[in-house]
Amino acid sequence: MAITLPDLPYKKDALAPHISARTLEFHHGKHHQTYVANLNNLIEKTDLAGEALESVIMKTVNKTDKVGIFNNAAQVWNHTFYWRSMMPGGGGAPTGAIAKKIDSDLGGYNKFSQDFKNAGLTQFGSGWAWLVLKNGRLEIMKTPNADTPSAHGLKPLLTVDVWEHAYYLDYQNRRGDYLDAFIKNLINWNFVNSNLT
Ligand code: MN
Question: Which letter, b or e, does each residue of 180-195 get, where b requires 16 or more Cβ atoms within 10 Å of its Cβ?
């Protein structure tokens, strides 16, 4: 069975004005869709055809002859996780287990906000900023291009896409403003809490 493009978990205009319907139309409908199509073309008639997405990622990580497959598979996974990391009316300080853990592991919500924004801002070129679990503790990290924490044994809890295609139509070069909007208005803390348990 081929890998398929999952629907967005909300309507295309649901994240406006922070992320416009036009951005989601291109980002989900063209960029994410293209990673899905490329991946299916690359694994068709190979022993990876029919494998689950996560399995394709784990079987191609650090394999120099399978970089193209890894990149497209990880980008399919990362984008699906990114859509779910956001919700209309989200953002701001978290509640529940993640709130306590951010206090104990990361020095509180304000420090988290600064450090998460900084991870996204300082990812040179394309990539992702993440909140992950490493040995039971929260960590903020960034990955270049298609790279993804699960390929390194880390458990992802939250991500933001900092490829230019994620924000250029709405923010042009102002990546920091996009990250502020993500942190203040879009983070789906329910999703983060569900990933934590
Ligand atoms: Mn993207």
Answer: bbbbebbbbbebbbeb
